[in-house]
Amino acid sequence: MDAVSSTEVVDRVFHWTEEAAPHYVCVCTVHMVMEGHDELDFQTIVNGADLVTPDGVPLVWCLRLLGIGRAVRVHGPWLLPFLCEQAARRDVPVGFYGGEPDVVRDLVAELRRRAPRLEVAYQHCPPFRQMTVTEDADIVRAINASGARILFVGLGCPRQEIWMAEHKDRLPLVMLGVGAAFDFVSGHKREAPLWLQQVGLGWLFRLLCEPRRLWRRYLYHNPRFIALFTRQWLSSKPE
Which terminus of the chain is more solvent-facing, meaning fewer CB atoms within 10 Å of its CB: N or C? Predict the structure, then answer.
């Protein structure tokens, strides 16, 4: 995981857009860490990203406990509009892949409200199923033909990270997996109050809002993460 600020992420992303080369960024949560712990193939995908930012406050605390004092939170729902505002200023076209049609419609409207000059070169809401080879090839051609230099991928973890890794060699642009940021920025879902996020309990708010969908993510993964990190931290301390 990289200890970078949102400003540093923006600088790297726009440097990469000038290269016309493939890059992908993972915005990491405890859920992603645990998916990587349980599935080594997925771990390889996340570790192979050009940048892995700590999204959750608990991850920032953990990095600091491991001696990385400059670690700060780089939150997907903050990073997405920040990058789009910068893209509008720099005339860099962006694209969106994932989400529901009404969510992406409202997302684009909100981003254009904040940055009227934003050029949205591409948007596509794929069905929640495996694409055929032909469908996938058509999507790749459409993205490349659009001229988008930054592609925000909102398929949810781990699907979006797998998709970015699988398509990296065919899409010479910068991809960012931003998960639920589409829902939050568009206003279709509420984020936890800031004070709750700051004390590391944003996950509890989400769990209370969507218990049936998220119970396993938080009630199964979180205790295991605490136990595993505690073991790692104790083993890293000098005798």
Answer: C
- Position 206 confidence tier, pLDDT thresholds 50, 70, 90: confident
The residue among 115, 174, 177 whose CA lies nearest residue 149 is 174
Distance (Å, whole) CA 199 – CA 202: 8
Q: Total domain count for the chain?
A: 1
Distance CA 103, CA 189 (A): 10
pLDDT in tens, 2-32: 989 889 999 999 999 998 899 999 999 999 9
> Measured between alpha carbons, how far is 181 from 172 in angstroms, rounded to an integer?
23
Domain around 60: 6-236
Is position 1 within any domain? no
Question: Which residue type sits at 213?
Answer: R
C-beta of residue 121 within 8 angstroms of C-beta of residue 95: yes
Contacts for 36 with CB less than 8 Å, ≥ 6 apart: 42, 43, 46, 47
Residue 111 located in a structural domain: yes
Rounded to 5 degrees, what angle do the CA atoms 7, 12, 13 make?
A: 95
Cα separation, 46 vs 90, in Å, equals 29
